[in-house]
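writing this on my phone so excuse typos. first protein, seq and then structure
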Amino acid sequence: MPTCMPTCTNCRRKWNYKQTLANLSHSGNQWNCPLCGETQYPTFTSMIRFALLYFLAAASLLVFLFLHLSFVQVAGVITVSYVLVFLIFPFALRLSSYKESPL
């Protein structure tokens, strides 16, 4: 199991990749630990990382638009970019036992 996976702040056990993806697929900003059931929240820095990953995916689209690619090719690039962000994010996620304020 990778060492950079999210760790529950209550039971101190690491979530595996499958558990993390299952939690990310739920809507909202809070998840229950699959190991102890305690509610966990993403840290503010995790949410910043997620926003940066999405920004980079969107920015890469501009490069492809200037290359005058077809709509199908641009749609493929968008799809691949966002799927990659979704698959990479579990490695950047850090958890907290409380909802952090941005300020």
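second protein below, same order as before
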Amino acid sequence: MHEETDEVWNRVFTVYVDGMFRLTRAILPITPSVALASRLAASMIFLIEDRTNISGAVLPSDGAWSVQ
């Protein structure tokens, strides 16, 4: 790090921090219904029920966004 210039650091910071912030800010208005607490709770309750026989599977709880 002692060999990097301020310009390089600013570029790295801009790409990683500002970029993630701007991306999140851009998509947040269309995605708040994905992670509602009630929907996440319903998924968790389903998985911990005694009659559920699921293991070793990835079950996204994302309002079907991952299949689009």
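The chain has a mean pLDDT of 83. thats all i got for now
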